[in-house]
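ESCALATION

Customer reports they have been waiting on this structure for their group meeting. Please prioritize. Original submission:
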Amino acid sequence: MNLMNAIQVMGGLAIFIFGMKLMSAGLHRVAGERMRSILRMFSANRFVAVATGAVVTGVIQSSGASTVMVVGFVNAGLLTLVQAIGLILGSHIGTTVTAQLVAFDLNWLIMPSIIIGLIFSFIPNRKVSNWSETILGLGFLFLGMMTMSNELRALSSYEPFVRALRSVNCQPVNGVMPLMPMLGALAIGAFATIAMQSSSACTGVLVALGTANLIDIHTALVMIMGANIGTTVTAQLAAITANRIAKQAALANTLANTIGALVIMVSLWFTIDGKPVFLKLVEFLSFGAGIPRQIANAHTIFNVCTTILWLPFIGLLAKLCEKLLPVKELSQVVFERLEPHLLSTPAIALTQTASALRKMLKKSWKMIDCALSVYNRNDERNQAVEKQLEQREADIDRRQKAITEYLSKLMLRPLNAKESEQIPMLLHCTNDVERIGDHAEIIHATVLRLLEQNLHFSPDAEKEYDQLHDTLAELAHATIKMLEAPSAEYGIQAARVQERMQIMLDTSETKHFTRISNGECKPQVGMLFLELIEEMRKISRHLENIHERASSFYGKFPKARNRIQKNAKPAEETA
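Update from on-call: job pushed to the front of the queue and completed.
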């Protein structure tokens, strides 16, 4: 019978964690469209950072997952260490929402939530279906909590279980909380949180124990301290492969929670009216509520107090982390645009992919510019780039592979309709950029054939060649701008340059045929000139595909989008 009770308790815990994750996933998807804009708030000030961290973690419902995301931001170069610490402190407050929810007697919500959530799941509208997960998750959260509480009451008569709890009983002896049981309770809280990967889940179990009258508030307080230490392990694991600054952010998370927990632990040995100072504060703010509410409040008060205490010293904490994990040269720190931990936030992962694509396009254009310049603008700087063309081509191929693999992993994550549509666009753009790099090799080989045979274009052809080169550069820069700061103005600018480029290519091709017919240009040279014009045409089409797809990706330029549907060329045609 007792074994069956234990299985029921574990089943209740499983339902509780499943409900928490389901509710979090639904809220995360509902807020996903706004996750990009949240980044803009990070740099405001430490107070905004703390508030943002609290809100984001309130959605994710796990400070561990939230700090992993922050570590990812730092590793991607999106946040400074000081900004990251502000977010981490805020996440400690946001993670207390679950415990506050389950401390209420809301069992009457279980069946209505499950029924409404299930009904919403059959509605095809994406926004409604996202809310269905949130509502279903809420129902399962309370169902798991009720199951745990009921079965734990049955286990209260099981002597080995009661004896185990007594071994870490932290109730004061002669007015002083015993040290060894405190250390045991601290360790249990830490290891339980590491196992469940969520301090919210651990606190939920403590609330269930409190509801079943199996744990006193003194022991629960110490276990909460342990849970807040244990939750920092997740970020430490995430930072193992990250850069040094990301490791500093993970260390800041550990130090903030550990030092805060130790300070509160010490305060438990100081009493007011025979009660520990911190417990006195919890009781005062609980307004005479029972043990479950006091446990939830203790979790919240601890995190709010430690955040307030650290807030003036964020800079000092950052310097301490920099001292413990020093960076010799900031220039040696590698920021990973395609940060794997950001895959859990698809909107931001897509933004990072666009950033990586922009960097790749700049490098591809540098190769084209160099190859075209070899003919008549081959100064020392261009010659240095020319020597690296082969390595640069290999680098472009590596970048294409990295972006493709990143997007492939992202496709396995839960995405909304808009995010799903953006992935094929980015993949097509990545292929276009890679092919631009391939054309650099063809152009370079063609120009070398000219120079090796001491052949030159006619004066008119050279003038057209320079004009086409300059206009192609203008088109490339306009396309890069579209990826850097999307706006209707840049979209129109790119479209106009593209039209002008096509007209110039057609005109130059016609004129050159005339020059060959009139004998003004040798057929051998003329054919090489036409080959170069054709390469420029292909490159301009790739750039056109990119800036048109970019307008669809950002979804802000209806006029540009109409042009895409009318004029865009399939990637296969521009190979």
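Sent to customer with the following note: The CA atoms of residues 363 and 396 lie 8 Å apart.
Escalation resolved.
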